[in-house]
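--- STAGE predict ---
source: upstream dedup step, 1 unique chain passed
mode: sequence only
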Amino acid sequence: MNYTKSWLHKLRIALVSTKAKSSKSDVSDTLGEINAIRQLETQVCELLFHCIILIIHIIHSCVIIVILLQRLFKVSKIQKGVQIFLNDMEEAGNLDQEARNLLAEIQDQTNEIFDSWSRNILAGIRDESLR
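--- STAGE serialize ---
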């Protein structure tokens, strides 16, 4: 939001200065305004492009995290079923350990993706590419 406000303020100043500089005739006023509008269009397109890219990254990260959390939930349900129904079998201990390992691996992947996403967002804020 700060980027948008400062950008609009700069645009207003540019338009006022363009009008002040080109007071020779109506034609030069019109040409100055046309150039200012073209610059505005370019800046708006760049801003929209950056917003769209940011939204795509956020959606992509969220989808991956949701998929991993769904897998985590499914494996957790399987592990509980193994503990309840197959506890008396010899291989139940091995299956339970495999389920625990898989749960830990999925949790690590989820944390890694979230941490990576957080670092990217914070880096974008620091270098002002997301403002």
